Amino acid sequence: MMSFRSKDTNTQTRFNWPWRSESPLSAQLLIDIPPEIELSDYRRLPGSGSESPSGLLHGEGFKEEPIADLDIFFERLYEYFCAKGLRFIVTKWIIEILNVLFMVFCTGFFFLIVDWDALGHLKCGVEALESGEKPCDLMQVIKHNPLVPFTFPKMITVGSMVILTTYGLINFLKFFVQLRSTLNIRDFYCKSLKVTDLEIQTISWPKIIEKVVLLQKSQKLCVVRDLSEHDIIMRIMRKENYLIGMVNKGIISFPIRPWVPGAGPTVKSHLQNSRNHLILPKALEWTLNWCIFQSMFDSKFCVRKDFLTSPAVLKKRLIFVGISMFILSPCLVIFPLVYLILRHAEEIYNHPSTASSRRWSNLSRWIFREYNEVDHFFRHRMNNSAVHSLNYLKQFPTPLISIMAKFISFVSGGLAGALIIIGFLGESVLEGHIFGRNLFWYTIVFGTIAAISRKVVADELQVIDPEGAMCNVVQQTHYMPKRWRGKEDSELVRREFETLFQYTIVMLLEEMASIFITPYLLIFEVPKRVDDILRFISDFTIYVDGVGDVCRFS
Length: 554
Known about the structure:
By secondary structure, this protein is mainly alpha-helical. 55% of the residues lie in helices and 5% in strands. Among the domains are: 66-227, no CATH class; 393-498, no CATH class. β6 and β7 form a beta hairpin. It is globular.
């Protein structure tokens, strides 16, 4: 991954501390550096002839209240740009609330109300007539007292519904809390930047940043100095840059087995003569963000002294979150399960080949991401790399599997085709039963097997050139570790590449498994790396005038 060292003359090393062998986090970790002047204190400074920077969100007139937090301001400026206007933000909020309500309904209906045992024995249509029973009544599979008896699985289901409802309620209230600032951002776009909601749908982000920088000639955003485009991006990506650095320095790696779901490429361990595996599922990313990055900065945008001098506090916080997550894990695992069914079941049913599609894992997104690379640019780069990545994996055909897949595809496709022809001749014939199943069921099963097996068959026109295929991938991912160079056609590189570019269904199952793996990591493994985490923050943090503490690589 490319690293960019700041060349700003207004930067200085924020931490220059000797790490002692007996205690990696000793006292005197911080040098007393005068804090950056806060906007809230600007009006109390001795007269300097400067104008108050307090007119940022309401056009030409200046208001009394300045921007309290420039990080949040620029983050919401970028979020508003990505959302493409206020109406899309409101629409997205409404859809998210409806999605949560729908998931709560589906969870309760399918896990509590539906009697699956009765549904399995229910006979309908021709089967009911042949057995002499009454036509099926679907109300027979509805439980009238779904919570009686109140078993442990039902308790887990109710707990998951409560958690999901709470999450939806928080999002509902959060929208109204942030609505005023969202309206202020819209006013800033319209009145200060002269960009309407219609124009924001087509304008590029670099042009927005350029307008913000030019605006500082008339309106002060930072009282220390005028911010450059680089400064603004460093503020937006302040926390993300630290996580990118930790992943690339191997801090987020643990001594786990390669078969553990979500385990990625190996990195050399600094403590032992062994190699650890990088791992960063979504659940672990969220918890690290909450435990570390949301609490490491003070109101001056500088790393807090007590955060760095109290590793025991961070360890306790990680363990507490891990234990809490372990207790709630049976409830939390229902969310991705329900989402998997609602999001992908219909897609796989109508397009079975999507089961063998691939996506970049969550870990790969932090390995490939550049410092100061905002999200929509990164997603564009990753989307462009998908086709080249699929082509690289096709450079390793397996003749045995391909031959077997051809046979399975031929047999299952032929049987499905024969049943379809029979259906054209007489539709009622498909209602006949073989081994307790009607022919409609066999048509669907054979068609699904044929579609999946065809995706496994190697392309006869495929040109085998692993080096060229990897070169095309690297042009987009910007990732080529030394151990891969000259070994593009090796099994080692292929296996590591597959841990980053996974089958969609495998990645979804791994995210479900991460609900149970993350508590283990937070309780037993991550606390062992707290000293390394704090050492990284101290060694790779610099102070930039007008920005605060940032990762050195940014």
